[in-house]
Structures are given as structure tokens and as C-alpha cells.
Amino acid sequence: MSRLHLHRAGRRRPGVPVLILLHGWSCHGGFFAPQLEELGGLTEVIAPDLPGHGKTADAVTPSIEAGADALAAMMQQEGIAEAVLVGWSMGALVAWSMIERHGSDRLSTLVVEDMAPRVINGPDWTLGTLNGLDGPRNAVFLKAIESQWPLLAPATARRSFALDARKELVEFAEREMRKASPPLLAAMWRSLTTQDFRPLTPRIDVPVVLARGARSQLYSLAAAEWQAAHLPRARIETFAQSGHSPHLEEASRFNDMLVGLIERRGRAQGAANA
Fold first, then answer.
1. What are the strands of the beta sheet with 107-113, ordered from one edge?
2. Residue 178 and residue 153: Cα distance in Å, rounded?
3. Overall domain count for the chain
4. With contact defined as beta carbons under 8 Å apart, do 239 and 254 qualify?
5. What positions does the domain AB hydrolase-1 occupy (predicted)?
6. Contact 41/12 with Cβ under 8 angstroms?
């Protein structure tokens, strides 16, 4: 049995890839409710709680690498031979780490939702977070996570959406984020801010959709363009009304995009087997 707690919907169908959804930092798999509710009629949908988050908590070491290993183990245990994998924010780091450590043989498509391959800015990289987070500022933030998380959660929730996002979305995010464990959050933040997947990017051999929010408060269009220029097979999908969370802010359009990816792969698989 997977050590990751899994939110699930739908059932597996022959020749149709499974949809796996990886959430962002301070969130959990339930943040993909619109996808779990709407896409289960098409295929099996799985949204794990990643290490340090939700009901997985400390059952898995709170690090990006441990999350990647646990994801690969879950896919093997579940017999998932082909998946559309969505990595939202921190979830993209887990997806990249899994590809780096275990390969991409089980993936048909990767969706990177509003994320850069490196979070921290520095002399050789200015496409991390838009607020210019660098090493010294990150050290201060790490200390604040453990000691002041109830005060940080509201701002974290607001920055997860466009500035004029629907009130109920921000309130939901803040309520759920407050439940997170500060020590585990700090451990995962420490891990995610050490990651640098720029060297991996040109080696990713599956199609990649860079799903970005045009009104993101966290990452720029330039970060998506850098990835598109360095990935062998990539396209940018822009969600004009969204901030950092298109799957929640424009859920219907985001779901339509996923349906297209799943059905296109299913048709290709059917043609190959004909």
C-alpha cells in the first residue's frame, strides 16, 4: 500500500492514461476537488497528499526527493503504466525529481502548473519567485514558518490566486493552509528551495504543457518561456484570468485542457493497437 494518502475518483479504463495531480506547498490533494469531481467519469484520478502535507504528514520523509520516490513507488504498486501527471507549484518539483530519479517511462504528458525549475533567485537566475526571494531572505522566511505560520497563512493564500480572486477561493485556501504542520512545512520548504532542475529540463522527453496564470503573483511569463525554449516538446497554455492556481480559478477551462490531453493519448493508443 502506498505511504502517500490518496484522494481518488473514477476508475481506470483500458488505453486511457490515469490522471495524477500533485499539489503545491502548504496545500493537500483536496485542492484538486474540481478535477476529482469532474474528470472521474473519464479516467481514474489520483491526487496524493505529498510528504509533510495533509494525511500523509510525516509518514514519508518531508523532502522533494522522498516525495518523488514515494510517487514512483505508488505508480508501480498501483500498476499505472501510463499517466498524465500534473505538478502544481511544489508538485512540479516532485514531478521533475521523479523523472530525474526514476525516468519518464510511465508518463504520457507532464503538465507544469505555474512553476519555475528553480525557486530561489541569484546572480545566475532571476526567474525564480517574483518577489525576488534569494538565499538570505529565504533563511529569514524559513525561521518564520515554524514560529509564525498562523500569521503567514493568510498572505500565502492570497498570493496563490489573482489579486481579485473570488473570496471563497481565498478563504478555502487559508482555512486549509492553517491546518498544516509548521515543522513539516518548514522541512519541505527547505527541501524545495534547494532544488534546481534547470539541468534536467532539456532531458525531459515527454510532451510538456506549461500551464501558467497570466495574473500570477509568484512566477512570470519569462519563467515559462525559458522552459519552453529548453524543453524538447513543450507549449505554453495561458489562463488569462488566473493567478498561481488555474485549476481552481478557471477550473472548467483547466479541466477541458486535461480532457484533451487524456483523450488525445487514448486515441493515439487505440490507433497503435489497431
1. 6-9, 45-48, 18-22, 83-88, 107-113, 208-213, 234-239
2. 6
3. 1
4. yes
5. 19-256
6. no
| Grid cell locating 165 | 480572486
Residue-range definition of the domain harbouring residue 80: 6-273
Is 62 in contact with 191 (CB distance < 8 Å)? yes
Residues lower than pLDDT 50 in the chain = 270-274
Q: What are phi and psi of 232, to 5 degrees?
A: -65, -35
- In the structure grid, which three cell numbers stand for residue 62, read together? 518531508
Nearest Cα neighbor of 27 from 55, 46, 3, 2 is 55
What's the CATH number where 121 sits?
Answer: 3.40.50.1820
Report if residue 76 sits inside a domain. Answer: yes
In a domain, residue 38? The reply is yes
What residue has cell string 518523488?
68
Contact 212, 237 (CB under 8 A): yes
Q: What is the pLDDT of residue 154?
A: 97
- Grid cell locating 243: 493567478
- Contact between residue 244 and residue 216 where contact means Cβ atoms under 8 Å apart: yes
H/E/C letters for each residue in 91-131?
HHHHHHHHHHHHCCCCEEEEEEECCCCCCCCECCECCCCCC
Output the CA torsion 214→216→217→218 (10° steps).
Answer: -120
Please give the pLDDT value at position 219. 98
Q: Is 171 helix (H, G, I), strand (E, B) or coil?
A: helix
What was the pLDDT predicted at 273? 44
